[in-house]
Design brief:
By secondary structure, the protein is an all-alpha fold. Helices cover 83% and strands 0% of the residues. The radius of gyration is 22 Å and the shape is elongated. It starts with 6 loop residues before the first helix and ends with a helix.
Length: 141
Amino acid sequence: MKPGTSAKAKTDNKRPAILERRRDVTRRISETTRLIGFGLLATSYAIISDSGDFFVEMRANSPSLVRLMALAGVLAVFFDYLHYVLGYFTTERALDRTDVPNAYNVEWSTYRLEHFCFWAKQLAALVGCGLLIFLVAQSFG
């Protein structure tokens, strides 16, 4: 480290790159979660409507799990949408602040709900994928 350069100053220089990476990762998580949600819905529809032996057996043996998988897909897409809507309102509110301009308040309900939806959509996608894996594995057993 150069003389006169503090560790904090060195870390602060990296902050924009770290924040950019965080934005990129969270964007990709959201895109992937949305894709999984729609995929779960399409797979559920195929299982429910197809007359092939594989799907008929899956429907007959685990109708509740098929419905839960569809529900997980719907919830993943729903929470993804809410995440963006709440993000819009939270950002608008931050831009309109006069006490601390352009700053978020973690106590705002929109901020907390946005954070909740970010994690809820991922949980829904993971549960749905787990159910799909179980259904497929069960049909081979």
